[in-house]
Amino acid sequence: MGRQLPAREGPSRHLASAALPVTGATVPEGYLLRARFLKYAYEDEQNSCTAKPHAHPEHVVFWPERGSGSVEVNGMEQSVSLGQGVWVPAGEPHSVSDRDGDMVALHIAPEAVPWRGTEVKLVTMLVAVRELLLYLADAGMPREQRVQAQRVCLSLISDEPGSVVQLPVPHDARIVEICRALVADPADDQTIEHWAVRLSVSSRTLARAFRDSTGMTFSQWRTCARMDLAVHLLDRGLPVGEVARRVGYATVPAFSSAFQRVVGKSPREFHPVLSA
To answer: Is Transcription regulation there in the keyword field (predicted)?
Structure first.
């Protein structure tokens, strides 16, 4: 999970530092935002992120479309995993050393969100928001319709990271079969070696395909599937001990540790009224 960075104080947040390179605007006039994959070159490449510290006149949210990624913000590395984003306010110094991965930068006009953007923080990037943003990046549509969709996206970027379990959708047919089985029964404890035998491939090939298709290892994806079900069971009021057993954990401490790691809270913090 990423670390939340402290807010930076001082005039540099308002682009007052003459030594800091500041790019031009990325969001077209009359619009609210613009999303772009950092691995691609654009017609206004001079406004893109580089490995050298720089700032933008707009807020930027960085998130990975697969696996994880990192951005250096004001001299501190901020790591984000799938489903998370890091909000970098306008004028905040940052750099991106790796532009070959699947990091996306969402530039947001400050006037579009006057109530936000004063601190560097982690945010939640829901699957639906990410997909809509990427759709808007390529789709043609009337200006009013596009702006309306952009407003929806901005309203759904949550300031409470870690409360939603993200399950990346695989694109490899072999991995789809495994993921469907895990969603149907997250407590299934078959190893990837067992699945390799069932699918007549080597375990090394299957492990590589799983990571390539989901951005996660087999074990990481299964844990997220278990925690996704656990969240729903806890919401229904089931005791922690029963939830642990239903999602494949022999002991409550082992379940609680995994839940804390994925969700960012212990089961009892998530639902304080529950008992084991």
So the answer is: yes
